[in-house]
Amino acid sequence: MKRAQRLALVAAVTAAALFGAAWLGLSAWVPNDEALARRIEAEAQQRLGVPVVVGAAHWRLLPQPVIEALDIRTQQDRPITIGRVALYPRLWRLLADRVFVAKRAELEHATFSRSAMAAFRGRANVAQAPGADFQLGPVPLERFVFRDVTWVSHSGVPVVYDGDIDFDPAWRPRRATLSRPGAQTPASLTLLRDGEADRWQVRVDVGGGTANGQVALTESPGGALTLAGELAPRNIEVASTLTTFNRRASLSGRVSGRTVLQAGGDSVGELARSLRTESDLTVANAVVLRLDLDKAIATRGQEREGQTPLDSLTGHLQTQNTEHGTRFTYTDVKARAGKYTASGEAVVWQKRVDAHGTLDIVDGLVGVPFTVSGPVQKPEVKVPPGFFAGAAIGTAVLPGVGTVIGARIGGALGRVFGGGDQRQ
Length: 424
Hints:
Layout: H1 3-29, H2 33-48, E1 52-60, E2 66-74, E3 81-89, H3 91-97, E4 99-113, H4 114-118, E5 135-141, E6 143-152, E7 158-168, E8 172-179, E9 188-193, E10 199-206, E11 209-219, E12 225-234, E13 236-237, H5 238-244, E14 251-265, H6 268-274, E15 276-288, H7 293-298, E16 308-309, E17 312-322, E18 325-337, E19 340-349, E20 352-361, E21 366-375, E22 380-383, H8 387-397, H9 401-416, E23 422-423
Parallel strand pairs: 4-5, 4-6
Antiparallel strand pairs: 1-2, 2-3, 3-4, 6-7, 7-8, 8-9, 9-10, 10-11, 11-12, 12-14, 13-14, 14-15, 15-16, 15-17, 17-18, 18-19, 19-20, 20-21, 21-22, 22-23
Helix pairs in contact: 8-9
């Protein structure tokens, strides 16, 4: 036998021996499919604190080592469901060094809701590898890929996402992407780490515009995390952006401005739950949808269907994540539409709106106080009961200036005796 043939034979025998050892080693650690499914259920329930049902589980060595679980469901009022989750461990590290490292994890066809996730707060623990006999490597998971994952907000709005994350040590993303598959207007977010620093470049493409910037993470000696950053929204179409995330738009136009964000906590989950933003925004070519202001005023609110183009719209927006959804607070809002100008502020939270302000008509001389309140889909618009009566008296006494004086008197009386607001 030639030397090359002998070397090839030795290599083949050695590979077979190593493969056999790997197989036996993994078999000793991982049970058969049925036992594996029950083991995953028990491990998940211990870590999450709620019963978990696994439809099936499999493991194999070829063409590459993988542990796979299918049809997973938590037993909750609004359960978490997962069609498939797969883990691709680095087998040689596991067997040779007893260090657990996964080169890839995959999550597919899953649904998570905010209410279901709240039950796990403070319980989920990923600090240890599967099996007490193994230690985690410096990068326990190198790459995480998810497809067709639905997030259901506190208000019950489902949104589907795709994404992937490449990890550095200490669970720091080296690169991450998030996108909305199937959206009419493409929407995506990309994070790119600046070298080894806890700082990331942010690129957002949404609504035909961008919101690029930078975020940074700092960690105190005690482990507390602080996230801070700044984005620059540019030419983002409001209506298409809201539609992309399955929200109904009441305004169209292209928004630009400056956004500052901040969050703090002891974990990534706490960072997300505490996230707040401050934005100074300007909307170009703004149009108020489903409201014809001229028609509403002419008919005293009896008819309002249509649209109102705005000459200008500016304002300050604050968002705050809370236990009950995101709270939107609008202040210093100023709008102009032909002979009308308006200013005010509003809070949108838990599917309700609470707003108040002043609408100026008659060449900006008559300030009509108004309130808007109730469900976002069908709010009530009210003005002081004395306004129209005051305006009518002023017109009868002295047209023009008399209307202004009468309207202001009527508006003032309405604020004093505001208990009987007249619905518009």
